[in-house]
Structure formats: C-alpha cells, structure tokens
Write a structure and sequence with these properties.
48% helix; alpha+beta; 854 residues; 16% strand; 25 helices; six-stranded mixed β-barrel
Length: 854
C-alpha cells in the first residue's frame, strides 16, 4: 500500500494539469457540502455548551415569541410559554426536576452606561432569567459569580451577569466591570460576573442574543407599570429543567399535565367566557432540551436541508468529473496496464492501485475543501445575518469543528472509493493482446459507456440545480415586488426606543409632536410620522375583537386582529390609501371620542356587507365592545413578513393622543406600553444625502437621551425581511452555476478524450472526402446525444424537485415552463461551448499525420 501511495504521488506530480483539475473540482464539491454541514451541525445538531445537556428537558414543544395573553394558546391548546405564577407552581410541585429554570421568550432592550458617566447609553440586549438559571444549566462563571435564587427576590439589590462576548468585545476584558455599578434603563445595577466563553444562554436565535442576564424580579424595576411578572395569564417565559436520572419522561409529562390543569382550574373565575369553554382542552408536551429553545433551528431547518441537497448535487457532479478523469486517464494508459497484466499483476492489484490514487486525490481535495468551506460558511453567515449591526451577534463560528472535519474526511474517503472503483474496474479489464497491437486505436463502445453515463448524469443533475435556482430566484423577486399596500420609495425608518429614556406616559405625545416638527425642518423631508410599528418592520400587537351590539363570539371563532398606535399623518406618510371615511388627524385628541381606523380585512371579517364607519368595537371583553368608534377604512397593508402566502389579517390603528381608562390591570399595562412608539416613518422624496446624520441631530435637539438605533431606507428594511429567502436563492444559484461549470468541464473532458482516441478514424474519414463541417457535426452530435438524454432525465427530476420545495416558493409554480425552459437553454448553451473546442480540434486533424501515426 505504501508503494502504491508513493507511486500515486509520482504519477500526480507528473500530470499537474490532471491533478489540479481533479483537486479543484473535488475541493469545490466537498467544500460546498461541508459549508452547509457546518451550519447544520451548529444550528440543528449541536447541544448547548453546558454540563450534561442530555439531562435537560423543556416544557413545551413550540417556538413562540414573545408574549401570549390569556389562559389558552393556539387552536390546538398547546402551551409553550408560561407565566411566572405557572412557572413557580411547576417548580414547587415537580420534584422530578433537580432544577427548573425560566427565561424570557423574547429579549429586553437595554440602555447601559457606567454609573456616573455622561456618555450616551450603549444599546444592548437583555434577558430576564430565574435565579437558578445558571445552576440549572451547569454553567460556571469566567470571573466573578453568577446569580442565585437570592438575587431573584423582590427587594433584593439589582444585579446583572455580562456575556463573555460583550465583556471581551465592548469592555476589553476589563476585570473591573465585576462589582461595578451600571445604569440600566436609568436604574442602578451591579455587574456580579461574566459568563463563560461560548455560553450564549439557553436559546439560539438569529438575533437579539443576550448581552446581559437579569433576574426575573428586576422586570418589575425595568418595566414598571408595564411589567408582566405579576399577571397570572401573562405568558412570556420558556421553561427548561434538569431531570433526575432514572425519571421516565412520559410519566413526567403526564404529571406536568395534571399539575397544569390543576393550576388552570384555580383560575377559572378569572377566565373569559371563551377561555372557560376551552381550558380543559389545554395541554403541554415535554421535549428534549439539550439544544435549549431551538429558535434558529425552527427558523432555518427547511432552508438548510434544501441547501444541503443542492450542495450534495454539486458534489455528485464533481464526483462525476473525478470518475471521468480517472476513467479517461486509465483508458489512455491501458497499454501500460496490459503490460502489468502480462507480467502477472492481478486485477485486484490493479484496482487497488487505482483506488489509492483516487482516494489520495479525494483527501487532497477534501483538505482544500475545508478552506472553501470556511470561506463559504462566512459567506452564508453574511447573507443570513448581515443586518442588525454589532448588536446582532449570532454565536455561530465559521471555523469547521472536529465533527465537521470528520464529516469532511469521511465524505472524501467515500468519494474516492465509490467514484474511483468504477474507473478502476473498467481499466483493469484491458485486453493485453489488443492493447499491445495498437494503443491508439479507437476505444470500443463498451469502454465509453461509463463516461457517457457520467456525462448524462451530470447534465441531469445540473438541470435540476439550475431549475431550482431559477424558481427560487423568481420567488424572491415576487416576494420583494408584491403589492404591500404601502410605498417604500423615498421613505426611511428611524429606529428609536423611548422605553430606555424613562419617559412618563403623559409626556410621550408632546415628545412625538416635537419630533415631527423638528424632522419636518430637515431639507427634503415632506412628512414624518412615529408609529408603534411601521409595516414590515417586524411586529404588531394583537387582540381579540368584540363588536358592540353583538353577543360573545364562540370559543373557537377567530376574532384576532393586530393593532398599532400612530401619530397623525401616518397613512399619508407611508402612502396608504384611505378607501372609506378619514384617517387619524390632529383633531383626534385626548378630549375627543376614542377612534380607530381599520383595514379592509377587518371590515370584511367583522362588518361584512355593512358600512363599518360609525360602528364601535373593543378588545377581548364584551364590556369593552364600545371602546373605539371606526372613522375610516384603509387599504390592506402587509405588516408581517412571515405567513406571506396567507391573506392580510385584520388590523386597526389608534391615535397616540388618546388613552382609554381600563378597569383591568393587564389592560392598563398594555395601554401604557403601547404609547411608547418604536418607529418613525420619514418621507423624503429624492433620497437626500446624509439622512441618518440629519435625523440624529434633529432628535438630539429634541432630547439627547432619546435612543436612536439607526435610520434605514424603507426599501432595505423590506428587503431584509426576506433575508433567509435571499440566502437560499443566492446559494442555490451559486450551486447551480457551479454545477453547470463542472458539468461543462466534464463534457469537455469526455469530448476531448473521444477526439484524441478517434484521431485515426477522423483522419481516414477526411482522407475519404469528409469535410471539416461534417467532422464538427459528428462531434457535436455525439455530445448532444449525451446531453439530450441528460435533459430528458433531468426535466422530470427538476419538476419533482420543484414540487418538493413548494413551501419555499411564492407566486411561481414548481413546473413553471419559463423557468424550466431557461434552465434547459442555459445548459444546452454551456454544452455547446464545451463541445465546440474539441469539435474544432477534430476538424483540424491532418489526414496524412493521422494515417502515418496509425
């Protein structure tokens, strides 16, 4: 074997063109597959970086963000978020957990600065967790200490734990941060420790990873009147616990269901009529928690699987090239093989020699493929998480880990063996007598079938890749250019957070009026309007709807609607058309009747066949059904980027100036919170330069403490909503082009080898009167006979692949004839170009030279 290895190295050094082509081909195929597997390993297969992750179990089987009000969750009644009271009930009554921890389902926006500093607050992501959070996960501090149950008590000194990522990146690994006092949202906190490197919490998401962990009870300090902690029906916590060894998860799940139903039963008097009908149908599930709350897995798993299949197709095309190269090389050297056989070499010996060379090439290609994978993973991370700035840290490392390196080694060895054994077998069956008589005679059809089959397979696989890329690219274009119901051209979104400025609710409306006035002084700005959320910025609030004069709806009737609070001029600023009645204006003040503008979907759902203007409705409870009077109907606007295949859902808009006095503490909290507006829509036709800097100065002139994250063109905001689709379409296109290039190279290699083998035959044909044109036609006919068969096989395969990825498509059919025809035409053109050079070479054969060689 060592002798074969030395011989293989000598042979590869003697044929640098062959070696380079083979290695680059394999490096691209293996590198692309390894890059996708790197992400799949970290997103879908990797456990939390904690002690004994296999002992962790999560209560709940769905990923939900970020608040869920009421005593039922979803149509199936499957609870995955829990209130603080429900969490404490589980923790007290379930001894099968050695520890049960709670963590906030979303994240808390924080403004952080060192005590005594006059610098602007540093915007960071926070996460409220129970005092036993770190103990449950088995995490140790890097410096200082981590929080305990004693820190998570009302009235205890406010403390925080800093992530290693922020400690190193923002604070330069300064150990003095431990014990130092910081102002967090205007409240004093002491940083007691730094978490271990690599620890990112119990949830891996595509953004908003925590920079600070705060005790759950400090939510009362941070959020004040809007805090959710004391509301038994305010679910905002994910629960994860460490189960004692030997406990049966099925039995534990059954016990948790009983405990949960008992807890719900204790709150029946507090439930709404619909909740009383459904509370006994509510359930929960216990799921493995070794990977924590796998939010990113839930979001990206379908796309990553699709990309892995596409990368696998590229690898198959690359392997086909390797097999073709090995086969051509083996057939070219069949005279040498015949001599070896005449001297007594067995076929097994010859196959082993060829396999050693094939595996050696694959291992070298795999080693270089690791570098390709590193670059590819960085590209994917950029495509998937390019927005959000420094606060959008995602704990995924582009460097291949040991499991990924072992995967690369395994795939390299398998590639070398599987796609090297067939060429080795074919070349080892050379006939010594025939080969010694004439090594340059035309190769028989029996010997070329393997090469032709490989080209056919490559053509079919490339067509599938190109068709998939075309479908996904068109789907992305359809997504980005659909009718959203509002305008983005010449408009900007300024991202603010008044919650970080400790503004009193009564000061907010005057503050936003000042902001409007100041922004209108910027040259080029035509209109500006703050809103709780602008369309497609990522969120909206939701309520059940009760209509005045109508009875309580059925428990399973869909009465949900989103709502947003806005300043006057909002609809004009976003270019939304009012189709009935009027928009919200400056006349809608705190002293006037409470009004709302609804969308067309709201009107169809709740007032079908009626004029909704003048009608009254309210949120969730029948006693609130007269809260708002409808004064206008706007054209439907798509607010959320997800569920984009579904119709626009009902929505309503409320004036920032108006405040409803509720008699329910939860409604009071929500009412206050909804007045803190997070977006400012700015209409500045012509896109005047320096918009962000001008807006920043304008807001600072109103209040230097108002936190501004940034200003983005609205077109970019909408485009970012389809970031995952853009990543999938871009990479699939890249894989399609790569597959096309490799297939063209493979076809070129086969045709070039065929011309070399048939040189004598071509010389005879030309000596007997064949002209150059007929020789070119003969070569092209041979090439397109293979490509034609590949297309015949690839077209139904491409249609099948389109059907499998229907969930990724929008506004395009899996069998779209234009996309399929475009892919077919592109492949045919590439095949023509790849065949022309060997065809021209064949046409240039001199008959006398060919016959003399013969």
């Amino acid at each position: 074997m060592l002798a074969d290895l030395r011989d293989a190295l000598r042979q590869l050094r003697k044929a640098p063109g062959f070696t380079t082509t083979a290695v680059i081909t394999l490096a691209l195929g293996i590198g692309a597959t390894t890059a996708i597997f790197t992400l799949i390993h970290q997103v879908m297969l990797k456990s939390l970086p904690v002690a004994k992750p296999e002992e962790l179990w999560r209560i709940g089987d769905k990923i939900r963000c970020c608040n869920w009000g009421g005593y039922n969750q979803g149509e199936d009644g499957d609870f995955s978020l829990f209130s603080w009271e429900a969490y404490k009930n589980f923790r007290a009554r379930t001894p099968e957990f050695t520890d049960l921890a709670a963590l906030e389902a979303g994240n808390a926006a924080l403004g952080v600065r060192r005590a005594g500093s006059q610098a602007a607050a540093d915007t960071r992501n926070g996460e409220f967790v129970s005092g036993n959070f770190f103990r449950t996960l088995g995490v140790q501090p890097w410096i200082g200490r981590l929080m305990t149950d004693a820190d998570d008590q009302e009235g205890a000194p406010s403390v925080a734990v800093m992530s290693y990522h922020i400690w190193q990146g923002k604070y330069g690994s300064d150990s003095s941060v431990v014990g130092a006092s910081y102002q967090i949202n205007g409240h004093p906190f002491t940083v007691i420790g730094v978490a271990a490197p690599g620890f990112y919490g119990a949830k891996l998401g595509g953004g908003g990873m925590p920079d600070f962990w705060l005790p759950l009870t400090t939510e009362l300090v941070i959020d004040g009147a809007t805090a959710r902690l004391k509301r038994p029906n305010g679910s905002f916590l994910d629960l994860i616990g460490r189960v004692r060894p030997g406990v049966n998860p099925k039995s534990l799940e059954a016990e948790l269901k009983v405990e949960f139903h008992n807890w719900l039963a204790s709150h029946v008097p507090d439930m709404e009529p619909g909740e009383k009908e459904l509370w006994q149908q509510q359930t929960l599930h216990l799921t493995p928690g070794g990977a924590g709350v796998a939010a990113m897995k839930d979001q990206y798993q379908d796309g990553l699987r699709l990309l892995l299949v596409a990368a696998g197709c590229v690898l198959l095309v690359a392997c086909g090239n390797l097999a073709n190269l090995m086969l051509a090389r083996g057939l070219k050297d069949r005279a040498q093989t015949s001599i070896r056989m005449a001297l007594g070499a067995s076929r097994q010996r010859l196959i082993r020699k060829a396999l050693v060379e094939s595996v050696l090439l694959s291992v070298i290609g795999g080693a270089i493929g690791v570098l390709v994978a590193y670059a590819g993973t960085r590209l994917i991370l950029y495509l998937a998480f390019q927005t959000g700035g420094p606060n959008n840290y995602v704990p995924i490392d582009a460097t291949p880990s040991w499991p990924v390196l072992l995967f690369t080694l395994a795939i390299s060895l398998v590639t070398g063996i599987i796609f090297g054994i067939a060429p080795a077998w074919v070349t080892s069956h050379a006939d010594p007598v025939e080969a010694l008589r004439g090594a340059n005679r035309s190769v028989s059809g029996g010997r070329s079938w393997a090469q032709k089959s490989l080209v056919i397979g490559q053509a079919a696989m490339s067509l599938v890749l190109l068709s998939a890329a075309a479908l996904l690219g068109q789907s992305l274009r359809n997504l980005e250019h659909q009718n959203f119901g509002f305008e983005t051209d010449g408009r900007y979104i300024a991202w603010i957070n008044p919650m970080l400025g400790n503004y009193k609710p009564e000061t907010l409306e005057p503050l936003f009026r000042q902001i409007d006035d100041r922004l209108l002084q910027i040259p080029g700005v035509r209109m500006a309007a703050p809103a709780l959320y602008a369309p497609m910025t990522g969120d909206s609030w939701n309520n059940g709807i009760r209509v005045e004069g109508r009875p309580e709806p059925g428990a399973k009737e869909d009465t949900g609607a989103g709502f947003v609070r806005v300043m006057p001029g909002f609809f004009e600023t976003v270019g939304a058309k009012i189709v009935l009645g009027r928009p919200i204006t400056d006349d809608d003040t705190a002293a006037t009747r409470k009004v709302a503008v609804i969308n067309e979907a709201f009107a169809k759902r709740f007032f079908k066949g009626q004029n909704p203007v003048g009608q009254h409705f309210g949120p969730d409870k029948l006693k609130y059904a007269a809260s708002y009077e409808i004064v206008g109907v706007t054209r439907d606007m798509r607010y959320m980027a997800y569920d984009y295949k579904d119709p626009v859902r009902p929505m309503y808009w409320l004036p920032e100036a108006q405040l409803v006095q509720w008699d329910d503490p939860a409604y009071v909290s929500g009412e206050i919170w909804s007045h803190y507006l997070y977006n400012i829509v700015i209409w500045a036709p012509g896109n005047p330069p320096g918009m962000e800097e001008r807006v920043r100065k304008a807001l600072a002139s109103v209040d230097p403490n108002l936190v501004l994250y940034g200003v983005d063109p609205y077109t970019q905001v909408v485009s970012n909503d389809f970031q995952q689709e853009n990543m999938i379409a871009t990479l699939t296109t890249l894989f399609g082009v790569l597959g096309l290039l490799l297939a063209a190279i493979g076809l070129y290699g086969v045709m070039a080898y065929m011309v070399e083998q048939r040189t004598s035959e071509i010389g005879v044909r030309m000596a007997l009167g064949a002209d150059r044109g007929s020789v070119v036609k003969m070569v092209l006919r041979g090439a397109f006979s293979q490509v034609g068969i590949g297309l015949a096989l690839g077209i139904p395969a491409a249609i099948g692949a389109g059907k499998l990825m229907t969930g990724q498509l929008f506004g395009v059919k899996p069998w779209d004839p234009v996309m399929l025809a475009s892919a077919t035409l592109l492949l045919a053109m590439a095949a023509l170009l790849a065949s022309l050079i060997p065809a021209r070479r064949a046409a240039g054969v001199e008959p006398m030279v060919a016959l003399r060689n013969e």
